Amino acid sequence: MTTATPSSVFGSVHLGYVVIETNRFTDWRRFGTDAIGMHHDTLSPDLMRFRLDDQECRFLLRRGPAEDVIAAGWHIDDHAVFEQIEARIRAHGVPLRPGTDEEAAVRGVERLLRFPGPKGIVQEIYTTPKTSTQPLRMLASGFVTGDSGMGHLAITSTKPAQMRGYFNTVFDARLTDYIDETISGVKLKIRFLRVNERHHSLAIAAVRGLPIDPIRTRVQHLNIQAATLDDVAQSYQRVCELGFDMALSVGQHTNDRELSYYARTPSGFEWEVGWNPIVIDENTWQPSTHQGISIWGHLPVGQTIVDKLDQFRLGARSLARPEITVPTLSSAGIPDD
User: Half-sphere exposure (CA, 13 Å, Cβ side) for 128?
Assistant: First the structure.
């Protein structure tokens, strides 16, 4: 595990859970348990959770209209680092709100602090996650979490420098690498940020030369890491057999070498199930730029010209819709190296 220096919190931060708001509970339960293979717990008619490991909550779903990710929870190693991050945020004049006892309980944590994040995704930090003694009931053999956190979030942005600045200020995020990609004639630059040994906990994609955002949801996709290649293959088959949409077929990424596929969730954003990404060695790693997201595969599945036109319409609409930022934490942002 990478430890933080007295002035840095890098290595002490791990993506711990994601909060999703949806009214499609029945579809989400089938997607999460029968397709992806996670453990499911019903808390109430308006709340349910998925588990990947012994931590009580990795995904919290609450009933509501957003059909989107509304919060990201970051596990902080200890109270001293927690208070260091809290002091940073307060020093920048950003409002913080302690989580209520109920909010902490449904997330399976003891100490919870909430504050504004880019694109309206509330950022939450916590310590001391609660673990469950109940055995996992899931189709997958397991998922990789631990020091790397539970996966990553990918976000499209019209202000990538400001978003990078935000996560540098809050978590001392480091640039891992870039990918340049052209999809349907649109040129994208993707920035990959890490907060621990995982290749990236955040991917930030922007259309080059145009301040447009072609994605309706706050996140483009989220990722979890399967324990075995068989788990990836079997969940891919279940997604197809159960009738859920597949966004991208199985492929392997150029930068982190993760083998994965992308399914479309009941809320519309994508869900990546991956296997065996590289682990960063902080002593030797140097950022670089890769051409294209995949060595092989990751081909669009069932995409029509109507789907492409809808993306362009959303992109055009975003020109008139300012992107939510937190200027005091992102300041001028961090330009590309």
Answer: 8
Could you give the CA distance from residue 50 to residue 329 in angstroms, rounded to a whole number?
Answer: 31
Contacts of 252 (CB under 8 A, 6+ apart): 258, 259, 260, 294, 295, 296, 297, 298
Query: Helices 160-171 and 79-91, interaxial angle, to 10°?
Result: 130
Residue 67 Cα to chain centre, angstroms: 15
The SS3 call for residue 157 is: coil
HEC string for 288-312? CEEECCEEEECCECCCCHHHHHHHH
Question: Taking the chain, what is the end-to-end CA distance rounded to the nearest angstrom?
Answer: 27
Instruction: Give me the percent of the chain exceeding a pLDDT of 70.
Output: 93
What does the block give as tokens for 223?
Answer: 């990722």
- In this prediction, residue 310 carries a pLDDT of 67
Question: What amino acid is encoded at 256 in this protein?
Answer: D
Q: Are 251 and 301 in contact (CB under 8 A)?
A: no
**Poorest-confidence range of 75-89, 209-223, 277-291?**
209-223
Pairing relationship of beta strands 289-291 and 174-183 according to DSSP bridges? parallel
pTM: 0.95
What is the identity of the amino acid at 64?
G
- pLDDT tens for 92-134 read 999 999 999 999 999 999 999 999 999 999 999 999 999 999 9
Closest by CA position to 18, among listed 160, 126, 111: 126
